[in-house]
Specification:
Layout (H helix, E strand, L loop, with lengths): L7 H7 L1 H12 E2 L4 E2 L8 H6 L2 E6 L1 H18 L2 E6 H4 L10 E7 L5 H12 L3 E6 L5 H5 L2 E4 L12 H20 L5 H11 L2 H9 L2 H10 L5 E6 L2 H17 L2 E6 L16 E6 L5 H12 L4 E6 L11 E4 L9 H18 L18
Parallel strand pairs: 3-4, 3-5, 5-6, 6-7, 8-9, 8-10, 10-11, 11-12
Antiparallel strand pairs: 1-2
Helix pairs in contact: 2-8, 2-10, 4-8, 4-12, 8-9, 10-14, 11-14, 12-14
The structure holds fructose -6-phosphate.
């Protein structure tokens, strides 16, 4: 069942090119380079009228929602806010007219996410679900559903469900951007053509698993890891920190790179590993200057980037993200950090597929 892999998690990491390809095929017609209208949750009219989107989810799915927030604002210019479902359900929120709620849930059975959906429904909002399980509760409660075609995910730590959720947000944001007149047909085709290359790009990251394993081995004594990045790279950092702590029990935190100096930098010393993700052209140099700040405090630094680096010797390691549009980088960058978490946990002898205290589906509050 594990297809020759030592753990389900590793198998599912390697399932990703296929999961991405299946999801792409479902939503995109590669022949005509168009998005299949019948698979999308917004009609042209709904897309033009939507004013406010709230994304709710828990854990890893929330991190996909953070990517969604960034992409929907950037590409579709819709005001979007990602919120943790357990917070949303008890918040005395101020709503505006024409609200849409997007609930992201691999299982579709997470209690807090279901409660958030029911609250929004009671308030008359339109509900769109992103789920991996056909006919799950969240999917059934929603007015429209987008499914990830990741196949069953067995390991407690989510991998292929996450990258395919991010992929759905890429497709949704491009579609809304196009329907709202911000992305021309021609631009959309260029974006889709490139998106269809994603399975190959993910495969090229998987081919570097040996490098990741080697680096993880060199960091085996490490007790604190900080993941830093800005914007989409911050989302990847959040997901990286969660993956590492949940399966290896190593203390890890994610910080928006510019926030570090407002307190957390006090924790950085020669024993700390800082993993910087820098794939976004617009803010690349800003993140690198934060890297300089932590280097000055003696931290070891791993850089994940698709950009050319001059002073390679200053990094403990560099993991190259295949060159694509910056909006697509979170997917290959995430595959690296999944592998990193896996190999860190492996050398500590952790129960990778069933980490302590965790359940695959959190159906109670
Ligand atoms: C972490 C992980 C969890 C889930 C969360 C939500 O690797 O898997 O954080 O993402 O419990 O689960 P779903 O997506 O099923 O609602």
């Amino acid at each position: 069942k594990r297809g020759g892999f030592r753990h389900f998690m590793l198998k599912e990491i390697y399932d990703q090119p296929q999961a991405i390809e299946d999801t792409l095929n479902h939503y995109i017609d590669a022949q005509t380079l168009t998005i299949r209208r019948e698979s999308m949750p917004f009609t042209k009219e709904q897309a033009q009228q939507v004013e406010n989107i709230t994304i709710v989810a828990c854990g890893t799915a929330y991190h996909a929602g953070m990517v969604g927030q960034n992409l929907l604002e950037q590409l579709a210019r819709v005001r979007t806010h990602a919120q943790i479902a357990s917070e949303y359900r008890y918040q005395d929120t101020v709503y505006s007219a024409n609200e849409t709620l997007i609930a992201v849930s691999q299982s579709g059975e997470t209690a807090d996410t279901i409660a958030a959906v029911r609250k929004a429904k009671n308030n008359g909002h339109r509900i769109v679900a992103l789920s991996n399980v056909l006919g799950s509760t969240v999917a059934r409660e929603a007015h429209a559903v987008m499914y990830t075609l990741a196949g069953p995910e067995i390991a407690v730590a989510s991998t292929k469900a996450y990258t395919t959720q991010v992929l759905l947000f890429e497709i949704l944001a491009l579609d809304l951007g196009n329907l709202r007149g911000l992305i021309s047909e021609r631009e959309l085709q260029d974006c889709l053509r490139e998106l269809l290359r994603l399975p190959g790009q993910v495969r090229s990251v998987l081919e570097r698993a040996g490098q990741v394993e080697h680096f993880a081995h060199s960091m085996r004594m490490c007790r604190d890891v900080f993941f830093i990045g800005r914007q989409l790279d911050y989302c990847t950092s959040l997901e990286a920190a969660l993956k590492l702590k949940e399966i290896s029990y190593i203390h890890s935190e994610a910080y928006a790179a510019g926030e570090l100096k407002h307190g957390t930098i006090a924790l950085i010393d020669e024993t700390t590993l800082v993993v910087a993700t820098a794939t976004q052209e617009r803010i690349f140099l800003k993140t690198l200057s934060n890297v300089e700040e932590v280097r000055a405090r003696g931290a070891s630094i791993l850089l994940i980037t698709d950009k050319e680096i001059q002073n390679e010797g200053q990094f403990q390691d560099i993991w190259p993200v295949p060159g694509m549009r910056d909006i697509y980088s979170p997917i290959p960058a995430t595959v690296y950090v999944q592998l990193f978490a896996y190999y860190m946990a492996l050398q500590k002898g952790c129960d990778i597929d069933k980490p302590r205290n965790l359940a695959k589906s959190v159906t109670v509050e």
